[in-house]
Amino acid sequence: MRIGIIGTGTIASAVVRGIVADGHEFTVSERNADTAAALAAAFDNVTVASNQGVIDASDVVFLGMRGNVAPGVLKDLTFRADQRVVSLMVGLSLEEIADLVAPASADALMIPFTFIAHGGSPILAFPESALLDALFGHSNTVIAMPDAAAFNHYLAAQALLSPVLKEIQVASDWLGARTGDPAAAETFLRLLIGGGLTADPLDMPGVIARMIGELSTPSGYNARLREHMGEAGVYDALIAGLDRLERPDGS
Ligand SMILES: NC(=O)C1=CN([C@@H]2O[C@H](COP(=O)(O)OP(=O)(O)OC[C@H]3O[C@@H](n4cnc5c(N)ncnc54)[C@H](OP(=O)(O)O)[C@@H]3O)[C@@H](O)[C@H]2O)C=CC1
Ligand SMILES: O=C(O)[C@@H]1CCC=N1
């Protein structure tokens, strides 16, 4: 397949790396220049072109710009009716993308995570897309949303990722400062948090509740820290923050 990227940034670069060995031809936009050059230097099947050059060379075009710049960029570009477009961007609906890329078809909105570069990423998709299943399903989990509202709820919920990472970083720094071995501290906490969550089959219900139950030794370290965090309002703040993400003005 001939795949184009407009907006060769953090997430688009990870997407390319994730499927670059699958026999496709990639044309990536010259912005970001360093990222585009790095991809072209690393892979024989990646070429750099102008935005219009990307479109002209591709069957499928991924949009990896930031949502706020996309309308101004896309209005000056010409798509073909035989093309399909996938948006990686937050902030523009499928209908808005469709208007901006006509006469090409807006195939799907797609939210991957940077570890798609290695596989194993959940990928939020709306609507269900045979194209995304074919391109990414072999090494990632494509989760298709039934409607735009569900997509937007999942989009808010995925924001949990970086606060969780921040907590791990704070605890890792705390541990490393005490032991004098920050690298070992980070390795331990990555294994601790990451290993358990996917150890059970993904279709098994109630895994998190069971794990919390298993970590509830009365007066144990886990029980005490969990209660402390609850008393400090962390879980209430999380719900309030998720609700806030869903309000149009973010208030
Ligand atoms: N980061 C992530 O993990 C994820 C991000 N997203 C979403 O994807 C979108 C991009 O995010 P991210 O990759 O982090 O952002 P980046 O800033 O890393 O990437 C945006 C890219 O767009 C390029 N760009 C800017 N203007 C133009 C233009 N006129 N023509 C072509 N390209 C242009 C930028 O180039 P330059 O550097 O030269 O300005 C940059 O390479 C956002 O909407 C984000 O919400 C979705 C899933 C995950
Ligand atoms: O959270 C965001 O705004 C986007 C989607 C995933 C990463 N960045």
TrEMBL record:
<comment type="similarity">
    <text>Belongs to the pyrroline-5-carboxylate reductase family.</text>
</comment>
<dbReference type="InterPro" id="IPR028939">
    <property type="entry name" value="P5C_Rdtase_cat_N"/>
</dbReference>
<keyword id="KW-0560">Oxidoreductase</keyword>
<dbReference type="InterPro" id="IPR036291">
    <property type="entry name" value="NAD(P)-bd_dom_sf"/>
</dbReference>
<dbReference type="GO" id="GO:0004735">
    <property type="term" value="F:pyrroline-5-carboxylate reductase activity"/>
</dbReference>
<feature type="domain" description="Pyrroline-5-carboxylate reductase catalytic N-terminal">
    <location>
        <begin position="2"/>
        <end position="91"/>
    </location>
</feature>
<protein>
    <submittedName>
        <fullName>Pyrroline-5-carboxylate reductase</fullName>
        <ecNumber>1.5.1.2</ecNumber>
    </submittedName>
</protein>
<dbReference type="Pfam" id="PF03807">
    <property type="entry name" value="F420_oxidored"/>
</dbReference>
